[in-house]
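Sec-independent protein translocase protein TatB
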Amino acid sequence: MIDFGIDKLAIIGAVALIVIGPERLPRVARTVGALVGKAQRYVSQVQSEVNRSIELEELRKVQSSVQNAASDLQQSVQSGLSDADAALNGTDTESHTSASTYTPSYSHLYAPRRKSFRLKRGATPLWYKQKNGVKRHVQSGAARVARFRPPAGR
């Protein structure tokens, strides 16, 4: 980039003072300053956009490498499970003399539990609240006042 020293800036200022004149020089300097500021903002905006696109490309590369690693891990786990299943069933990869063709079903272990959507569950279990005397029902302030208000007849 162009290197401006103090001596060069002084020469440019003197020439601008002679050419433009002392009356219009402050207005021209403000205009030039505003234009330089706009140019700097535009350059910084373009630079940040380029940096974002570079970071996005790097993130895409990382994502693809993580997906490849996950698929490799999944394949190794599947092969390990199939080897363990074969060992548990008594079938070797070399001899297939076993008459049993049992394949275990793990769906009952991973089936989602049905929850009642109307039942609100707290973090503290009910048996603990009952044992320690913790309040289980919430009452509003108005209901509490009405509950403990003395009878009106007295």
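thats it. Residues 6-90 form one domain. The longest helix spans residues 25-89. bye
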